Amino acid sequence: MGAYRVAVFASGQGSNFQALVDAAADGRLGGAEVKLLVSDKPAATVVGRAQAAGIESYTFQPKDYATREDYERELVGMLREKEIDLVVLAGYMRLLTSVMVEAFAGRIINIHPSLLPAFPGKDAIGQALHYGVKLSGVTVHFVDGGMDTGPIIAQRAVPLTEETAQESLTAAIQAEERTLYPEVVSWFAEGRVKLEDRKVTVIQR
Ligand SMILES: Nc1nc2c(c(=O)[nH]1)N[C@@H](CN(C=O)c1ccc(C(=O)N[C@@H](CCC(=O)O)C(=O)O)cc1)CN2
Ligand SMILES: NCC(=O)N[C@@H]1O[C@H](COP(=O)([O-])[O-])[C@@H](O)[C@H]1O
């Protein structure tokens, strides 16, 4: 049996992508390999990170397709052809339709910069600051048909003080993300994640 094959979907800077690539190189990804980067933003920084790491990237522009389903059907075909085991969304800023969600049921995860179900969607950090929470954090969850509504796999808390501003909270959250996401992917590579209804269990080694 070959290595556990991961495709990362990203639209922006790619710090989570880089953390996953670095973890694989350091042997901290449970034997998984990042085999592909997919981006809807061909000029995004993350694409340059993939090129620098020697990882294949596939970019597309949603405006070139009549519907989301059209480009997702192409993505599904490619992911199957490359025998991808797990789709890891890492700052991928497009809603997935049932085409992707059903084709990779139980094999698509996302990282979100809040303690879901609080502050789903865009600008979760800004939402948390505006609300005045004393504790925010990071969530890794399964991706389902809703926006950030899938079963929760792992969470890490990040405290706020009166001095916490957007920049410092973003830095603290992204530091937690860079540690948590590789750990969660390694659990999948080791076959230790079980999902029953909405209950997620990670089997201890
Ligand atoms: N079916 C699902 N798809 C996605 C999920 C999910 O839980 N279920 N998570 C998101 C990630 N995400 C926040 O975590 C997110 C993605 C997309 C958007 C959004 O408003 N996108 C717009 C386009 C924005 C743009 O082009 O810049 C859109 O899709 O029309 C907000 C939050 C990933 N997908
Ligand atoms: N709603 C999704 C969302 O807000 N995702 C967030 O986008 C950032 C991507 O950073 P990166 O491109 O440096 O990995 C990450 O902080 C991730 O949690």
What does this structure look like?
The active site is at residue 112. This protein is an alpha/beta fold and 205 residues long. The chain has one domain: Formyl transferase, N-terminal domain (Rossmann fold). It contains six helices and nine strands. It has helices at 15-25, 45-53, 68-81, 98-103, 124-131, 166-189; strands at residues 5-9, 33-39, 56-59, 86-89, 108-112, 135-142, 152-159, 193-196, 199-202. A seven-stranded mixed beta sheet has the order 3-2-1-4-5-6-7. The protein has a two-stranded antiparallel ribbon with strand order 8-9. The radius of gyration is 16 Å and the shape is globular. Bound molecules: the ligand Nc1nc2c(c(=O)[nH]1)N[C@@H](CN(C=O)c1ccc(C(=O)N[C@@H](CCC(=O)O)C(=O)O)cc1)CN2 and glycinamide ribonucleotide.
Order of helices and strands: EHEHEHEHEHEEHEE
Overall morphology: globular
Helical content stands at 25-40%
Q: Estimate the strand proportion.
A: 15-25%
Measured on Cα atoms, how large is the radius of gyration? 16 Å
Active site: 112 (proton donor)
Function: Catalyzes the transfer of a formyl group from 10-formyltetrahydrofolate to 5-phospho-ribosyl-glycinamide (GAR), producing 5-phospho-ribosyl-N-formylglycinamide (FGAR) and tetrahydrofolate.
Family: Belongs to the GART family.
Binding site for N(1)-(5-phospho-beta-D-ribosyl)glycinamide: 14-16
